[in-house]
């Protein structure tokens, strides 16, 4: 995880996971709409996954 991706995950979570695939982007986008904190947590979990 790079510092730029972590900062993106904090400030705009869907943009941080854009390179991980469309499904990840949509999940994080929906969670961000439900609340900012769930979106940030999901983005950090997805970015921390090595696959």
Automatic annotation (TrEMBL):
The chain crosses the membrane at residues 29-47. This is Uncharacterized membrane protein YqaE (UPF0057 family). It comes from Maribacter spongiicola. Its main location: membrane. Pfam families: Pmp3. InterPro entries: PMP3. Keywords: Membrane, Transmembrane, Transmembrane helix. It comes from the Bacteria. Belongs to the UPF0057 (PMP3) family. It is found in: Membrane. One of its GO terms (cellular component) is membrane.
